[in-house]
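Write out the 3D structure for:
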Amino acid sequence: MRNLFTLLKSLGLVAVLASGGLLVSGLPTQAANPLELNFGLFGPRYDGRVAECERALPTITSQFQEKESTFWNSSLTITAYGRIHETAFRPWQSDNIPRRYCTADVMLSDGKVRTVHYAIVEDGGFAGFGQGVEWCVTGLDRNWAYNPSCKSARP
């Protein structure tokens, strides 16, 4: 086979055969039939029903404690919340995933008061089921996921 290819190459027939293959494959194409169209595939339908800011607090408390103990070997926990308020609801176009942005003050077990910025996301839970919560405690974003000062966790 190798000898055949070198023979064809020396005769210049490789280019001729390649161009002939292109001509053969240039048959006319046809439009997609109805079954090949994106039949029945519709975009996401969001209702815009996102929980109030207070509903996410137990989730933030448990996830914060788990993150601190598992990844940072810390015994910090959230002990109390204050000044809970919404900062934005669907701040971008209406076609985006609905989110409610909130901010609150948190009292930690070390006695310090910090700010937590969080978003409640429609269909943002595990595998798109239920509402998910994305949060960041200012000054404790140790892996810099929302750096600087949790700016990326805000609208």
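The radius of gyration is 29 Å.
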